Structure formats: C-alpha cells, structure tokens
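Reply to dn_fold:

You asked what the input looked like. This is it:
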Amino acid sequence: MNVVLWIIAGLLAVVCLIGSAKMFVPRERIAAVGAAAQWAADFSPAGLKAIGAVELLAAAGLILPAVLDVAPVLVPLAASGLVLLFLGAITVRLRRGERVTITGDVIYLCLAACVAWGRFGPEPFTS
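and this is what came back:
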C-alpha cells in the first residue's frame, strides 16, 4: 500500500505542478485553452496566482517532507488541503453548469482523499 500511496502522491504532485502555471500564465490565455478552462475568466489575476501558489505548495507538500524526512506529517495535511481545493473546483464547475468537465476534478479529489486517509491511517510515515 505504501508504494500505491507514493504513486498517487507523485501523480497528484505532477498535476499540481502543471496547475501551478496559473501563477505565470495570463488569465485570458488560460481561458482560451478550451471549454474546460473557461472558469478562469471568473477569477481575478490575483485569485489565479493564489490558486497556483496553493497548487505549488501542495505539490511540494506531497513529496518533499517524506523524501527529506522533515515533518512527514505534512504529507497527509497537504493531501487534505488538496481535498479542499478540489472541492472548491467542483463547486465552481457546478455553479457554472460544467457537469461534463467535472470528472477530472472528482478523480483528483478521490486520489487526494486516498492519500490523506492512507497517510493518516494505515500507512503513516512515523511508526
């Protein structure tokens, strides 16, 4: 189970690193990507930078504390924060009526919840 949790955490970290590009890419360019990214027009540039910063911190929090063995309790906390982030993303999509594009957010939410549960419960880093 430890290996599975590492794989899921790594996948989520990659997704969050890609998503952290919101800190640098202009809002209009994000919204122009396609129908799944139209939500970006609802947020201010500062809001998008904040979301990108949270994703960058989550990516680091999912991997670095365990790898460096410095405060590994931060891994399930980062995963719990991602659960909240993806709940917010799902809420935004539901409010916008984008039920078709909600699937990815639901999958990422479940993966983050799995890491949080696994690292708080059966496979913690501390013994």
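The two ends are 15 Å apart (CA to CA).
Hope that clears it up.
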